[in-house]
Amino acid sequence: MRNWLFLVFIFLTAEGFAQNSISGRIVNSENGEPLPYSKISFGKEQVLTNIDGSFRINYTQDSLKLQISYVGFRSKTLKVSPTVEYVLVELQPVVEELSAVTLSSGENPANNIIRKAIINKNKNDPQKALEHFSYKTYTKLLIDNLSEGMRLEADTSNLGMETIINTGRAYLSEKVSRNTYSRGKGLKEIVLGLETAGFEEPVYEVLSLESNPLSLYQNDYKLFGTDYAAPLANDALKNYHFTILDTTAAQRPAYVIYFAPRREKVVAGLEGVLYLDTLSYAIQQAKAQLLGAIKLEVNHYYNYYPEEDLWFPKKQVTNIRPGSGGKDISVFGGVISVGSLQRGSDVLSSMLGGTATNPNDYLTSTATNYEIHFEEDVSGKTNAASIEVLPEAGERKIGFWEENRQQIYSRRDRNTAAFVDSIIDAQNIERKLEVQKAVQNGYYPLEFWDVDLGNLLKYNRYEGLRIGLGGKTNKHFSERFSLNGYGAYGFKDEKFKYSLGTEVYLNKSSETIIGLSYTNEIREFGTFEYLKKVNDFSLLQPRYSNITYFYNYENLRVGLEHRIIPTLQAKLAVSKSHISMNNSFDYNYIHNGKHYSEYDLAEATLSFLWQPFSRFLHTPEEYQIVEDGFPRFTAQVSRAFKGIAGGDFTFTRLGLIADHQIRRLDQSRTEFILEGNYAFGDLPLTHTFHASPNNANKSAILNRFAVAGNTSFEIMYFNEFFSDRQAMLNIRHQLRPFYFTRGIQPELVLVSRFAIGDFKNKNLHKGLDFKTMDKGFSEVGIELNKIFAGFGITTAYRYGAYHLPRFEDNFSLKFSFQLPL
């Protein structure tokens, strides 16, 4: 009996405190268009509708009185009872003056406010107004994608998140970081604690997604790896429409400014509201949204600090929810949409404008800043990585988290963490992430061995079909060293090539590695191999198939590489090589009256890769690039010594590559690659320079049909030019992709290439007839890439001093193939 009475008591108590809810939408009575960010007042509270005019309010009273207003429309008051679950409110437009916020006549007053906010950015942006500051951030990221089937198609920099969303479909992480800023050295993040449910090792790639951008004052607003036009960018009035919605009645009043994209098809933009201080024009609060198949919502909150007269970011809440349908949304550097498990498409769901039934569907990220200091000098290490993960970050005890959590870690969170553990294990997500990371670098992991994908199958005109097998051991074999090697066989030349080597990791954190290798291979005439360079692995090697002249190359090398600072890597190598000609052709180098068809070289090489504007993540094991910055520089100097280790010649070779990209929010970009090479001394033709030609020596255009390269000269014939000094400039301008469907978005690229070079003592090289480029070689081209399944078509035309008599000899037609890995 007592148990029955207890249950009745609980039921009655629950009924007494039952929560009611009312949902609805505010629209224009004349055309039914939604009124985004309409103000709804009830009691002492206020809310704004979403960009589709929808809202949802929870209340416990017997009835609710709503006062609804929107600039330029007649206000309306209505009373709702618990029996009413949904209302459609139509507001009638009126001509109305806002004298309190009208700053000028003849112009949209909101534009004047935005213009003043832009002018005052240097006073309001913490990174411009302050010499230094520091703060801690607690971030909780939750992904619950089990019920809705969210799909992500991301670029190569976000494959980890794509795997989590599409395959794992559940994720929970906590992070505590200390952020420091000093003018001239930028913003640095030190990860003090990191907890990732389900993973033995943290998914470090998630740290680089910029889920909590500090400033809304930048020209680009980067969120989860995708760039949007910022509402207070210098060209904000070009990219956005602005409207004054209201002014707040607070101690520091604010203009409530609504912004919407002006050039949505050209520039990625957001829609939302800015609360701008009426005195300083600083951001007090901001809300931005994207609405389509997925609804993205970001809320920024600021605190005011009187001594600094500054509004500083306090909290950011980002939600990704089921939307009401329509366009896909760009996020995580790709396209996110609803997958195969669709939400019910009933009338009520459509009218609610995508309000999620489960508030934790898809993704929630909440970041709270605390322990904010403005006075102390926080300059720290000058050359630290942008994000530094402490070795103990992944091993924090419960006391650390209880001390630093700025949000409640609920029973639901604990249950979710346990559930994610089982999902990650059942779906083998860690293995899939391992595979994706290895494939991006050209390998496929099998137990303790990573198979080299670039060595499996090749073709060229000398070897014919070439098959090979090789790779290297991975961390499952040893954390301290690795073994590497490959073997390959050419069916036309009937020769076996191979390489064997090992690397010992002296310090994995600084990437200090000593290596030893022996290689018996063939090599193209005129190559200059940079020991340190940006990873440019591709399954297809377009030039390789048309190369005719190779020489035999036996090389024993010892090398030491080290990351000096996060942005600067170096490698020093000493080697002994034996060079000999094969039956591809008969070449002789004349030196001091003696003809050499084979010779020995003893070389020392120092190579650098410098990326001064790139951002890096430093984990306890390695450096990972967070964001490519430009320009980037690759430099190398190589010296051969006669009389040392049997070396026959003395010469020096120098090389420098500078590449730069200008990326725009409309997805167009311009690329510049400038390379210079210089050599002097007793230089055989094998160690001179070619200009990366990619045109077969055949007269008919269709017989030259092949795969175009990215930086090669498409109409320069193989072995046509060699130089001992040369300079090359490659300019590519890609227009904004043409959108037909999600899978078909071809890119039109305009290309211009120029090279100039010279050659001393050309008469010392016998067996190969070649020209110099002292008059300058020029070509232009048009590419239409990614027409379908990565395939495209390219053309190039040769003009200028080395223009040939027949049109077809100056013209090339090839296909392109870009396979994202």
TrEMBL record:
Annotated Pfam families: CarbopepD_reg_2, DUF5686
Name of the protein described by the UniProt record: DUF5686 family protein
Originating organism: Autumnicola tepida
Origin superkingdom: Bacteria
Matches recorded under InterPro entries: CarboxyPept-like_regulatory, DUF5686
UniProt-listed SUPFAM superfamilies: Carboxypeptidase regulatory domain-like
